[in-house]
Amino acid sequence: MMYKALFSLVFAVFSLNSAHAQEADIDETADAVAADFEANMEVVSEAAEAAMEVDPFDPTSNRSPFPKRGFYPTPTPFDYPADSHVNGEEGLVRLTLDIDAEGTVTDCKVSESSGHLALDKASCAVALRDAPEFEPAKDERGNAVASKYELTIDWNIREPELQPMVIDVRLTIGTDGKVSECEALETSGTLFRGFDRTDPCKNMNRSGDIYRDENGQPVAKKVRIRMTVEVDDVPE
Protein backbone atom coordinates (compact mmCIF):
# COMPACT_ATOMS: atom_id res chain seq x y z
CA MET A 1 0.00 0.00 0.00
CA MET A 2 2.89 2.36 0.75
CA TYR A 3 4.47 1.89 -2.68
CA LYS A 4 1.10 2.33 -4.39
CA ALA A 5 0.74 5.69 -2.65
CA LEU A 6 4.25 6.75 -3.75
CA PHE A 7 3.58 5.87 -7.40
CA SER A 8 0.30 7.80 -7.25
CA LEU A 9 2.11 10.85 -5.94
CA VAL A 10 4.79 10.69 -8.64
CA PHE A 11 2.09 10.33 -11.31
CA ALA A 12 0.31 13.39 -9.92
CA VAL A 13 3.54 15.39 -10.09
CA PHE A 14 4.05 14.49 -13.76
CA SER A 15 0.43 15.35 -14.54
CA LEU A 16 0.78 18.75 -12.88
CA ASN A 17 4.01 19.48 -14.72
CA SER A 18 2.39 18.53 -18.06
CA ALA A 19 -0.37 21.05 -17.44
CA HIS A 20 2.23 23.74 -16.81
CA ALA A 21 3.94 22.93 -20.11
CA GLN A 22 0.76 23.65 -22.05
CA GLU A 23 0.28 27.09 -20.47
CA ALA A 24 3.76 28.57 -20.60
CA ASP A 25 6.75 28.89 -22.84
CA ILE A 26 8.41 25.52 -23.38
CA ASP A 27 11.88 26.63 -22.22
CA GLU A 28 10.59 28.33 -19.10
CA THR A 29 8.25 25.48 -18.39
CA ALA A 30 11.07 22.97 -18.72
CA ASP A 31 13.02 24.77 -16.01
CA ALA A 32 9.90 25.01 -13.84
CA VAL A 33 9.08 21.36 -14.39
CA ALA A 34 12.59 20.32 -13.40
CA ALA A 35 12.49 22.45 -10.27
CA ASP A 36 9.00 21.31 -9.30
CA PHE A 37 9.83 17.69 -9.96
CA GLU A 38 13.02 17.87 -7.89
CA ALA A 39 11.21 19.57 -5.00
CA ASN A 40 8.35 17.07 -5.04
CA MET A 41 10.67 14.10 -5.28
CA GLU A 42 12.42 15.30 -2.13
CA VAL A 43 9.05 15.24 -0.36
CA VAL A 44 8.37 11.75 -1.74
CA SER A 45 11.79 10.52 -0.67
CA GLU A 46 11.37 11.88 2.86
CA ALA A 47 7.94 10.25 3.14
CA ALA A 48 9.30 6.93 1.90
CA GLU A 49 12.17 6.98 4.39
CA ALA A 50 9.79 7.77 7.25
CA ALA A 51 7.42 4.98 6.22
CA MET A 52 10.25 2.44 6.00
CA GLU A 53 11.50 3.17 9.53
CA VAL A 54 8.92 0.77 11.05
CA ASP A 55 8.35 -2.57 9.38
CA PRO A 56 5.11 -4.09 10.74
CA PHE A 57 6.35 -7.59 9.86
CA ASP A 58 9.61 -7.23 11.76
CA PRO A 59 9.20 -8.40 15.37
CA THR A 60 12.17 -6.28 16.46
CA SER A 61 10.18 -3.13 15.65
CA ASN A 62 6.94 -4.34 17.23
CA ARG A 63 5.81 -2.25 20.17
CA SER A 64 4.53 -5.37 21.97
CA PRO A 65 6.81 -8.14 23.30
CA PHE A 66 7.32 -10.98 20.84
CA PRO A 67 8.63 -14.51 21.68
CA LYS A 68 11.82 -15.38 19.80
CA ARG A 69 10.52 -18.90 19.14
CA GLY A 70 7.21 -20.72 19.20
CA PHE A 71 5.64 -20.44 22.63
CA TYR A 72 2.73 -22.82 23.24
CA PRO A 73 3.06 -24.05 26.83
CA THR A 74 1.25 -27.37 27.24
CA PRO A 75 0.99 -29.34 30.48
CA THR A 76 2.42 -32.86 30.40
CA PRO A 77 0.80 -35.73 32.34
CA PHE A 78 3.47 -35.17 35.01
CA ASP A 79 2.35 -31.54 35.46
CA TYR A 80 -1.21 -32.47 36.40
CA PRO A 81 -1.82 -32.00 40.15
CA ALA A 82 -2.70 -35.36 41.68
CA ASP A 83 -5.76 -34.07 43.54
CA SER A 84 -7.06 -32.36 40.39
CA HIS A 85 -6.71 -35.59 38.46
CA VAL A 86 -8.57 -37.59 41.12
CA ASN A 87 -11.34 -34.97 41.26
CA GLY A 88 -11.63 -34.74 37.46
CA GLU A 89 -10.75 -31.03 37.43
CA GLU A 90 -10.18 -29.43 34.03
CA GLY A 91 -10.22 -25.85 32.77
CA LEU A 92 -8.58 -22.89 31.03
CA VAL A 93 -6.24 -20.53 32.91
CA ARG A 94 -5.30 -17.09 31.57
CA LEU A 95 -1.87 -15.83 32.63
CA THR A 96 0.00 -12.52 32.46
CA LEU A 97 3.79 -12.63 32.18
CA ASP A 98 6.05 -9.72 33.13
CA ILE A 99 8.76 -9.12 30.49
CA ASP A 100 11.70 -6.86 31.33
CA ALA A 101 13.52 -4.53 28.92
CA GLU A 102 16.00 -7.33 28.13
CA GLY A 103 13.19 -9.63 26.95
CA THR A 104 13.37 -11.98 29.96
CA VAL A 105 10.28 -13.29 31.75
CA THR A 106 10.48 -12.12 35.35
CA ASP A 107 7.10 -13.01 36.84
CA CYS A 108 3.78 -14.74 36.19
CA LYS A 109 0.31 -14.04 37.56
CA VAL A 110 -3.11 -15.63 37.05
CA SER A 111 -5.40 -13.08 35.39
CA GLU A 112 -8.37 -15.42 34.92
CA SER A 113 -8.94 -18.52 37.04
CA SER A 114 -9.96 -21.97 35.84
CA GLY A 115 -12.09 -22.26 38.96
CA HIS A 116 -9.64 -24.77 40.45
CA LEU A 117 -6.89 -23.42 42.70
CA ALA A 118 -4.48 -26.32 42.11
CA LEU A 119 -4.64 -25.87 38.32
CA ASP A 120 -4.15 -22.11 38.65
CA LYS A 121 -1.02 -22.59 40.77
CA ALA A 122 0.44 -25.20 38.42
CA SER A 123 -0.10 -23.02 35.33
CA CYS A 124 2.61 -20.48 36.10
CA ALA A 125 5.12 -23.29 36.70
CA VAL A 126 4.39 -24.65 33.21
CA ALA A 127 4.58 -21.21 31.57
CA LEU A 128 7.84 -20.21 33.28
CA ARG A 129 9.42 -23.57 32.43
CA ASP A 130 8.58 -23.29 28.73
CA ALA A 131 9.03 -19.52 28.33
CA PRO A 132 11.59 -18.40 25.70
CA GLU A 133 13.44 -15.12 25.51
CA PHE A 134 11.36 -12.28 24.05
CA GLU A 135 11.99 -9.38 21.74
CA PRO A 136 11.19 -6.65 24.28
CA ALA A 137 8.44 -4.10 23.80
CA LYS A 138 9.41 -0.67 22.41
CA ASP A 139 8.28 2.80 23.41
CA GLU A 140 7.43 5.57 20.93
CA ARG A 141 11.15 6.34 20.51
CA GLY A 142 12.07 2.73 19.81
CA ASN A 143 13.65 2.10 23.22
CA ALA A 144 13.19 -1.31 24.85
CA VAL A 145 10.83 -1.18 27.83
CA ALA A 146 9.29 -3.58 30.36
CA SER A 147 5.88 -4.93 29.37
CA LYS A 148 3.34 -7.72 29.83
CA TYR A 149 2.39 -10.75 27.73
CA GLU A 150 -0.85 -12.74 28.00
CA LEU A 151 -1.39 -16.43 27.27
CA THR A 152 -3.62 -19.35 28.27
CA ILE A 153 -2.98 -22.84 29.65
CA ASP A 154 -5.53 -25.55 28.85
CA TRP A 155 -5.85 -28.40 31.35
CA ASN A 156 -7.43 -31.64 30.10
CA ILE A 157 -7.14 -35.05 31.73
CA ARG A 158 -5.64 -37.63 29.39
CA GLU A 159 -5.78 -41.29 30.32
CA PRO A 160 -3.38 -43.85 28.78
CA GLU A 161 -4.83 -45.33 25.61
CA LEU A 162 -3.98 -48.85 26.73
CA GLN A 163 -6.84 -49.69 29.09
CA PRO A 164 -8.34 -53.11 29.93
CA MET A 165 -10.37 -54.25 26.93
CA VAL A 166 -11.32 -57.13 24.65
CA ILE A 167 -12.05 -56.95 20.93
CA ASP A 168 -13.09 -60.21 19.28
CA VAL A 169 -14.26 -59.89 15.65
CA ARG A 170 -14.91 -62.43 12.91
CA LEU A 171 -15.15 -61.45 9.24
CA THR A 172 -14.72 -62.63 5.66
CA ILE A 173 -12.24 -61.20 3.18
CA GLY A 174 -13.49 -61.95 -0.32
CA THR A 175 -11.61 -62.66 -3.54
CA ASP A 176 -11.94 -58.96 -4.33
CA GLY A 177 -10.32 -57.93 -1.03
CA LYS A 178 -13.56 -56.55 0.37
CA VAL A 179 -14.70 -57.26 3.95
CA SER A 180 -18.09 -58.89 4.52
CA GLU A 181 -19.99 -60.96 7.09
CA CYS A 182 -18.54 -58.88 9.91
CA GLU A 183 -19.53 -60.09 13.39
CA ALA A 184 -18.45 -58.70 16.77
CA LEU A 185 -18.18 -61.70 19.09
CA GLU A 186 -17.12 -59.52 22.05
CA THR A 187 -16.28 -55.86 22.65
CA SER A 188 -15.70 -54.78 26.23
CA GLY A 189 -13.69 -52.35 28.31
CA THR A 190 -12.17 -49.06 27.15
CA LEU A 191 -11.66 -49.65 23.43
CA PHE A 192 -9.05 -48.08 21.18
CA ARG A 193 -9.79 -44.60 19.91
CA GLY A 194 -11.45 -44.84 16.53
CA PHE A 195 -12.96 -48.27 17.14
CA ASP A 196 -16.66 -48.19 16.28
CA ARG A 197 -18.83 -50.64 18.24
CA THR A 198 -21.61 -50.22 15.66
CA ASP A 199 -19.23 -51.02 12.79
CA PRO A 200 -16.46 -53.20 14.26
CA CYS A 201 -14.90 -54.00 10.87
CA LYS A 202 -14.58 -50.36 9.87
CA ASN A 203 -11.15 -49.64 8.33
CA MET A 204 -10.13 -53.31 8.40
CA ASN A 205 -8.17 -54.49 5.35
CA ARG A 206 -8.16 -50.94 3.97
CA SER A 207 -5.38 -51.86 1.56
CA GLY A 208 -7.65 -54.41 -0.16
CA ASP A 209 -5.17 -57.26 0.16
CA ILE A 210 -6.36 -60.69 -1.01
CA TYR A 211 -5.54 -64.27 -0.07
CA ARG A 212 -4.39 -66.72 -2.77
CA ASP A 213 -4.36 -70.47 -3.07
CA GLU A 214 -1.38 -72.64 -4.04
CA ASN A 215 -2.01 -71.81 -7.68
CA GLY A 216 -1.93 -68.08 -7.06
CA GLN A 217 -5.67 -67.65 -7.54
CA PRO A 218 -7.65 -65.30 -5.25
CA VAL A 219 -9.66 -67.10 -2.56
CA ALA A 220 -12.02 -65.94 0.17
CA LYS A 221 -10.97 -66.49 3.79
CA LYS A 222 -12.62 -66.39 7.18
CA VAL A 223 -10.60 -64.23 9.57
CA ARG A 224 -10.91 -63.90 13.34
CA ILE A 225 -9.24 -61.01 15.13
CA ARG A 226 -8.94 -61.07 18.90
CA MET A 227 -7.18 -58.31 20.84
CA THR A 228 -6.88 -58.28 24.61
CA VAL A 229 -5.35 -55.65 26.87
CA GLU A 230 -4.77 -56.49 30.53
CA VAL A 231 -3.51 -53.91 33.01
CA ASP A 232 -2.27 -55.06 36.43
CA ASP A 233 -0.47 -53.46 39.34
CA VAL A 234 3.29 -53.97 39.60
CA PRO A 235 4.14 -56.03 42.71
CA GLU A 236 6.08 -54.07 45.29
UniProtKB/TrEMBL annotation:
Sections of the chain in a coiled coil: none
Membrane topology: Single-pass membrane protein
Pfam families: TonB_C (PF03544)
Signal peptide start-end: 1-21
InterPro entries noted in UniProt: TonB-dependent_transducer, TonB/TolA_C, TonB_C
UniProt keywords, alphabetically: Cell inner membrane, Cell membrane, Membrane, Protein transport, Signal, Transmembrane, Transmembrane helix, Transport
Main subcellular localisation: membrane
GO cellular component: plasma membrane
Residue stretches making up the TonB C-terminal domain: 65-158
One GO term of the biological process aspect: transmembrane transport
Record keyword Protein transport present: yes
Highest taxon, organism lineage: Bacteria
Compartments in which it is found: Cell inner membrane
PANTHER family: PROTEIN TONB-RELATED
Family under the similarity heading: Belongs to the TonB family.
Protein name as catalogued: TonB family protein
Organism of derivation: Pontixanthobacter aquaemixtae
